[in-house]
Design a protein that fits this description.
Blueprint lengths: L1 E6 L15 E5 L6 H7 L7 E6 L2 E2 L14 E6 L5
């Protein structure tokens, strides 16, 4: 199963060196959930603000639903500023 993970803002630092810009394609065993993907790349869960699956928002309570082959998961951190 292939999944594309896109990380934005400061989360891009968590991508492996072979990432293409802000994205990496993963050969993953099925099933894999957005939460498992976030944990696999060691994103700080308390900083994860927005998760999208194929362009649709995934609320925190739905992040344990299995992903499908070809899904694109995009993750943004909380925005901080002053």
């Amino acid at each position: 199963m292939k999944i594309t993970l896109k990380l934005f803002a400061g989360f891009a630092d968590y991508l492996p060196p072979d990432a293409d810009g802000n994205a990496v394609t993963i050969d993953a065993p099925a099933p894999l959930t957005p939460r498992q993907l976030i944990n696999r790349y060691r994103l700080p869960p308390e900083q994860v603000r927005v998760v999208m699956r194929n362009g649709e928002f995934v609320p925190a309570e739905a992040r344990d639903a299995p992903l499908g082959d070809g899904d694109v998961v995009a993750v943004w951190p909380s925005v901080q500023g002053g």
